[in-house]
Protein 1
Amino acid sequence: MPIRRFRSAAEMEGTVWLDRDDPRLWPTIASVWDLSARLCPMHFPPGLRKHRSIEEANQLNQEWEATNVLRSQPG
């Protein structure tokens, strides 16, 4: 993805958004997802887990998310 420089916010109008019919849209989305996965990889322990309640499942999910957020912060 090329880097563009703008002298004002007015120059940015219309340059960022792609129409949903634009054939470049899906490759652009894929490249953004790939970049985010490389810069801040999310890690969830492998395997299947059974929970006794939805609250228990939500609690484990929140713990995993918190761990991933802490891992992504510098320092």
Note: The radius of gyration is 19 Å.
Protein 2
Amino acid sequence: MRRIKNYLRPKSIKEAYRAYQEGKAVFLAGGTLLTQKRNIEIDSLIDLQDLKLNYIKVKDETIHIGAMTTITEVAESTILTRSASGILSKAAKRLGSPAVRNFSTIGGNIMSRVYWSDIVPVLLAVEANLFLFDGSTHRVGIGSFLQAPRFRGMLLVEITVPMEGRGFYRRFSRTEVDIPQVVCVLTQLRGVHAVVGGLWKIPQRIEGLEGEIEKGGAKEDKIKELIKREVKAFSDLRGDAEFKKEVASTLFIDIILKESKNTPEFPA
């Protein structure tokens, strides 16, 4: 990072967003990803610590998570164990090292749009909503957020997830604290959601697989066929595209044909 002209700690969401509009500005949440950037010039670094966006609470049968809540707090939350079998907390426990989790925030993890996130595939599978601010507040489903670049310049204030459902989360990585090569999530809320992350630039729902599960006919060969046909993947330093698809197939087969069979009322 070459130079930062101004360091700001606004006291309100409106003040933070006004500062962001005034030039080359960056929001600072946990800072774990910002420190990795090189050769960028920043007029204003906007520290969000004073906005009181660090909380996990229940309101109207929905769990509300402030964007500045740390990954450690998500991992240790007893409230989040009530949402989709606690898979958001399970995913948070696997994100990086303890030191990274203590600084990294759930909002920073979402807004950074890193394709290898453990958190975002889970949020997609539980149909999370994001509350974003750009002078007014917008409620946006995370699926729409991932597809539309127009939300990138907004300030994330809050994430909501349902207090219901069942879920399964699995990931594959070289070591316990390494970035995942594949993340697989299966949930049942109002319907079945099958989501895979780490293979493409954003997490992907596998709608054909969801349909097979809901019909109760998801067999091993069919799972492999659907993932091979429907899932986009690219090769990188963490693995070949076809290898990642094979891993995703193996994880989903294990979830669907073993784990979910032991869960009452799950249609697998």
Note: Residues 166-262 form a domain with the Enolase-like; domain 1 fold (CATH 3.30.390.50).
